[in-house]
């Protein structure tokens, strides 16, 4: 059964789907994207993902490629045409096609691609043993709140992590604070039992999972702080974990060459994970 992609108004077999060589996404990474999880054939936290897409576009002086309602219908159709039950929908919007020139061209139509991918449930080993992260310097630009398709530093960070057998990279600022993972948000539970994740300003992408989890933590009465935390604090932490639309809440049991506490997934992490999965299943 061929995978089907939506490309600028057409549903095409994945293998035939393509974009123009002068698409500004291809030439300048002039575009943004969203990854929306799908559970039981339904988009999860769809409104928040579309809000973030709209915000990323407007920060780059771009319009939504179609109305929100039309975008929802196309996503539903891509899910249906791919018989997707659990996985994610990938949406990418670029400024469009124009002769190569740095300044924003006038009067061109944004280009849009939507694909879908089925994923396997997270392995039990990951949940029982947790994952390792490797720290790397954060060499990215200063507008990480925009979900830009310009991801080369993130790819380099992830590659460095994988080469050392780690699952994810944690990026660290010159001042010693952790920003986030290459495609995930970073969390710790401090020695004093406080849940900490970095403030959502221009330094990180405000994850949709991050937003949902903060609500879940508040409902569960878990004390939390949104603030930068240092790598030293993370080394000393009682627990650590990462969040994203595709990894949900994943325990971290190793940071560089150090075990996090006793090297087992933490109880706050696992409690929050369960509450978060319950919440998205209910919705
Ligand atoms: C840099 C970065 N931070 C955080 C996240 C997590 O965001 P979300 O929870 O919306 O998937 C992502 C997801 O792609 C990301 O690329």
Care to describe what's here?
The chain is an alpha+beta fold and 283 residues long. It has two domains: 4-118, Aminotransferase class 4, branched-chain amino acid transferase, N-terminal domain (D-amino Acid Aminotransferase, Chain A, domain 1), CATH 3.30.470.10; 124-282, D-amino Acid Aminotransferase, subunit A, domain 2 (D-amino Acid Aminotransferase, Chain A, domain 2, Alpha-Beta Barrel), CATH 3.20.10.10. Helix content is 30%, strand content 29%. It is built from eight helices and 16 strands. The protein has helices at 24-28, 46-59, 68-81, 124-129, 152-163, 208-219, 231-236, 267-282; strands at residues 4-7, 10-13, 31-39, 42-43, 87-94, 111-118, 131-137, 168-172, 177-181, 185-189, 195-197, 224-226, 229-230, 239-244, 248-255, 258-259. The strands form two sheets. Strands 7, 8, 9, 10, 11, 12, 13, 14, 15 and 16 form a ten-stranded mixed sheet that branches. It has a six-stranded antiparallel sheet with strand order 2-1-6-5-3-4. Strand 3 (31-39) and strand 4 (42-43) form a beta hairpin. The mean pLDDT is 97. The protein binds pyridoxal-5'-phosphate. Pyridoxal-5'-phosphate binds at residues 35, 154, 180, 183-185, 205, 207-210, 243-245. This is D-alanine aminotransferase.
